[in-house]
UniProtKB/TrEMBL annotation:
Protein name: YdhG-like domain-containing protein
Lineage summary: Bacteria, Pseudomonadati, Pseudomonadota, Alphaproteobacteria, Rhodobacterales
Alphabetized InterPro entries for the sequence: YdhG-like
Pfam family, one: DUF1801
Limits of the YdhG-like domain: 8-103
Length: 111
């Protein structure tokens, strides 16, 4: 995967995030971008986008709670799950928008 395709995947994911949750804040953190649904509230982080040499990872803070009957999400930790994207077509093929909507809708412990 080349740098241009990586940048296109990241840009497309960010555009989908804004469609799903228009008031988000993108925060450069952990070598990628984390997304806060309530700007300035770190506890409202629901996903992150991280670019690697061979893929882009869309990571979900509480991914273990997402409905995933087709087993698209990867990871076996207590909370987090992620989707590896190697092409633009993976965004639709792996139902990224659906997972982003689910992640946004999860109840958080915000004050």
């Amino acid at each position: 995967m080349d740098a241009l395709e990586t940048a296109e995947i990241v840009a497309r994911l960010k555009a989908i995030v804004v469609t799903v949750e228009p008031e988000v804040a993108f925060i450069a953190k952990y070598g990628g971008t984390v997304v806060e649904s309530v700007p300035g509230q770190p506890k409202s982080q629901f996903c992150g986008i991280f670019a690697y040499t061979s893929h882009v990872s869309l990571e979900f803070t509480n991914g273990a709670q997402l409905d995933d009957p087709a087993k698209v999400l990867e990871g076996a930790g207590k909370h987090r799950r992620h989707i590896k994207l190697s092409s633009l077509s993976d965004i639709a093929g792996k139902r990224c928008e659906d997972f982003l909507r689910q992640a946004r809708d999860l109840k958080t412990d915000l004050p």
